[in-house]
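[step 3/7] fold_predict: job queued, chain A
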Amino acid sequence: MPKKPKGDKHLAVGRLAGRRRSATTVPQSAAGALEALLRRQPQWMSKAAQAAENRELVDVLRARLPDALAAHARSAALERAELVVTADAAVWCGRLRYELAALLPELQRQWPAVRTIRLRVGTGR
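[step 4/7] structure written:
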C-alpha cells in the first residue's frame, strides 16, 4: 500500500472544517476590501482621501488640456500653495508649463489655495 503524502495530515478537518464565514467578514469586492482595511487602520483614512483628491485634480487637468498634452500629465497634487504636476518626460514639461500657466486663473477658482505651478518628470505617484 502506497504511503500518503505528509501534506494530507495537515488539512483543516478539526474545529474549522464546518465553519462558514459570514458576509460581513468577507468583502465582496476590491472596494469593500479597501473599506474594511481603512476601518481597521484609521491613520490611512487621510492618505486615502488625499489620493482621491489627487485623482480628481489630475482628471480635471487632463480634461482642460489639449489631447496631445493630457496623455503626458501623469499625476497632480496640491502641496501647500503649489500645484505639482508630474509629466512622463522632460520634453513635455515646457509645453505643459505654458498651458498650465494659461489655465491657472481657472484652476484657482476651483482650488483657491493654488498660487504657483511646479512641474517634475516621473511616472507619477
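[step 5/7] annotate
The first strand starts at residue 73 and ends at 79.
Strands lie at 73-79, 82-87, 116-121.
exit 0
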